UniProtKB/TrEMBL annotation:
Residues 1-23 form the signal peptide. Residues 481-804 form the EcxA zinc-binding domain. It comes from the Bacteria. This is Zinc-dependent metalloprotease. It comes from Pelomonas caseinilytica. InterPro entries: DUF5117, DUF5118, EcxA_zinc-bd, MetalloPept_cat_dom_sf, Zn_MMP-like_bac.
Amino acid sequence: MISMPRTALAAAALLAMATIAQAQNPPAPNGAASAPAGAASAPAPRAPADPTAPKPFAEVIKGAKEQPGLFPIWRKDEKVWIEIPKEQFNKPFLFSVNVANAVGERGLYASQMLGDELAEWRRVGNHIQLIALNTKFRADAGGSKLAVEQGFSPSLITAGPAASAEHPDRKSVLVDASGLLLADIPGYSTRLEMAYRLPYGPDRSNSFIEATRADAQVSTLTARVHFATPRIPAPPLTPTPVPMPSPPQATPDPRSMFFSFVYSLRALPETPAAVRHADPRLGHFTENYSNLGDDLKANPRVHMVARWRLEKKDPAAALSEPVQPIVYWLDKNIPAKYRQAVMAGVLEWNKAFEKIGFKDAVVAKQQPDDADWDDMDSTHASIRWFTGADVGFAIGPSNRDPRTGEILDADIGMSDVFGRGSRRLAADDVPPAQALGAWMGERSQQQLAEQQCSYMADQAHELGFALDLLALRDGMDMNGPEAEALAQAVVKDVVMHEVGHTLGLKHNFRASSTVTQAQLRDKAYTETHGISNSVMDYNAYNLPLKGEPRASLTNTTLGAYDYWAIEYAYKPIAPEQEAAELARIAARSTEPQLAYGDDIDQGVGGPYDGFDPRTNQRDLGDDPLAYARKRLKLSQELWERVQTRPASVGDDPLRNRRSIAEGFRQLGMTANNVAKYVGGLYAERVVPGVSSGPAFKPVDNAQQREALRFIASGLLSSNSFKFSPEFLATQPVDYVDWDRGLPLSIPDAVAALQGRVLDRLMSPNTARRLIEQGSYLPEAQRKGAVSLSEVYGTLQGAIFSELKTGGEIDRMRRSLQREYLRRLQAQLNRSTNAATVYADAFSMARYHASQLAADLRTASARPGLSVETKAHLAELQDLLGSMLKATLTRS
């Protein structure tokens, strides 16, 4: 038996007595205490107040000012509350986030759309949650919506306690906006870590709600959020194998930075828009989901065209104004000198809408310079100008109703390089150049995010190349009216492209290949039809060779494809006729001028490296090979003229360096396009049962061999890159700047360019296609096909031609040969390539490597070679011998 302390026993006895008394006298209803029998009635004591219960609504907002709207906003000093009516709980709306202010470097820029979600408010007791609904999986018909809801979770955006009790009349509650929105809702701590590899986080104590606005359709709150890190770590004592990014360079203190996030809570249309389904023969952005309600379809994916709701005021009229036009607001931060060009780029799209019966479907409005409202909320489609220390792109994203694909908002961001960039390249007013290799044809990989594109940055670079060449060739005044007109045309072209994105159109990188070389030289044709059949391509400049007539240099109007894509997405069609009419429109895809290829077709890396040489960025005309030869001649002409350009007082010391770099940049964008011919496949968008013909067809043998010859005799030849020693010796660095760069190195620039060609021709993907291309040809056509052995042999023979001729190997050629061996070593690495390279490709690479080893031994024995060439050949022999021995090792 366990003894119990006396005090514990007494407590137990008292508890037992109390329990008996409670059983004899149960509590009265509603918690009122029962009076003992026979006792006189007395007022019941007041229950103690619950300290955790929300305060009355009126008490919380006493002295606050209301902004009525979808979700009314109350403000008092620094305090901000969102009012949520009872009927708005569990009712979906669109929640979107934009960033209005940022740090201006490494992808962290202002005036950017960050995303949107279908969201709803939920209440759990006195806890308020903002929930992102899962729209990726649905049960449209025949299936169990409950099963889908149980199978796929929503996500929590933010949450907080109710700040008030329910209003007795308004039947609504308050929630503290600061508690909800000053957290890291956009996930910027991860973005910051990606950019700087430092642990930044939101600092609530120094963050606040800086602006609010509300109306019946939307409630908008802008949160000024401070991100900070406790310390910047000291750099390592020894360099790391992988270079680490530097801390922030664009902020006064790299430990601290502010972002302004614009949160919009927008009501969805009460009547959902009509859905229009996508067709693979045209390029539209889509809203996608898996329909798990239909288990008879093999593919449950549904693709709804992204488009604005556009309805005629007079449905019976051949040409009618829309009930609600698509309105773009030109932000007041766009410099006045560019506003007309921006507006012209917007309004150009009305030509396409007029073809399908809409008058003034697209409207452009200028935000007044004294406007006190921001166009970053989700009810103003806008075009905004933003700046950055390292920025050079435009973007045309949109927010959509996930139920239907209806576009509800769009904010085009144009970095100032599309205006200032054109000027700075023309006037040589740029930040100090980095090492020359960073300029040589390098392009960021096409972003897989839908509407991100680098068209504007490339246009700015091409404008610099064009103005430089025309000024040196024809004496064009960089500050004259002709240069001004061209710069304005570039602005219009870029705006047309980005507005096309916000109308729902994807890139079409095949459009430029459907205009003939003769048409490109015809001024009347290019002024009427443009230089490409779509503004959604990355169109190169239509620069003539010396002595050729000059037509339009850049795109000035919509192309045939643009009209067709708008017709499919926006043409008013009676529901009972829609399927047949859309099929008729899409069936026109076989017309040459409507050819279409998207980002994946062009190549985005990995297995999707782009194998159709007609689908490219930055080519022009129906003969990409001819365009490549022309680009080389234009670059060579620019280099020749730059070398004879006299220096003037006040010249930037890096002026000639940038001109040379632009020539290499143009070739860098061309090199990969030419190499796509080798082992290339023509791809057609065949729809089973609807269209006919081969989906894939190997590129003609003659064209593959022509591309190989151009690569060997042009891009891999030292003779293509001639610069006088006297010129190179007189090119200074910028001694004022800390990062002044190094002396100009043409061999390094050539190596970067040639490396792109080698990467393509020696890639596993190219080897695979060369081996398999016979599978797509009838037996009779396989004889004489370009083989992997022919490609490797041609490439190796061109790169090591001195081994046969007995000539000296100059600095550029030595660099090229080392780059070739470096890639050959990767091909012969059995352990890393076992999963990516065919055994046939491995054995073919090894066979040619053995041939090369024999040629190196023979060449090394020749007398009279310079020490540099002998040393180089000895190095190659040693490296190649080690590579061949290593591949014989068996695990």
